[in-house]
Amino acid sequence: MAALLGLQTGSVELVFAWIAVVFVSILIHEMGHALTARSFGSEVEIELNTLGGLTSWTLPEDDFGPGKRATVAAAGSGVGVVFGGLVWLVASATGPFYGLAGFIVSNLIYVNLFWGLLNWLPIRPLDGGHLFTSLLEKIAPQRGEMIANVVFMATAAAGLAAAIYFRLTFVALLAGYLLFAELTRGRTRQPQVPIPPMTFDRPPPDPESEPKSEEVDG
Question: If we measure between CA atoms, which residue out of 124, 123, 156, 111 comes closest to residue 5?
Fold first, then answer.
């Protein structure tokens, strides 16, 4: 997927540089989730996949409250934004950079800052969606699922409209996919009345670890 997005650079060298930038940026993002969850006593696992990454983590015996789950969800983008900011500071102090080095530096800043901020939007299943569901679990546990469904459908539609307006092809495709998922969500599963702690798939059971786990998309 990174290679397909990088084809517009028109250079094989820049395509490989773009793949490296995306790989490093996504890994840093997922490390933010993983290290934060591990600091709370969880066992963690990171998987990089077609559209990004997935961090799986077990729940310790005392479980996670919505505050800790929100912290884990926010940590990925938080670490990415900090990393992008550090690259910008170093580049400002030692640059300017041109050619391949300039391409790598500018895209490390762009990917980490842009994707980090985008990931905080209240859209399921982005990190902002997990933050929002944690808030609903705290303030409106009985109506949380209904509120989340309405808000996530509206934000996905707004994201699609904004991406089309600004001609962001990849973002438009992603937002369209998320909107389709929201529109078909009620047809594929029974509604749940209170909102679940986090809407994550569970990883395969491991007899050596705790039976419960949660995952954060990157």
Answer: 111
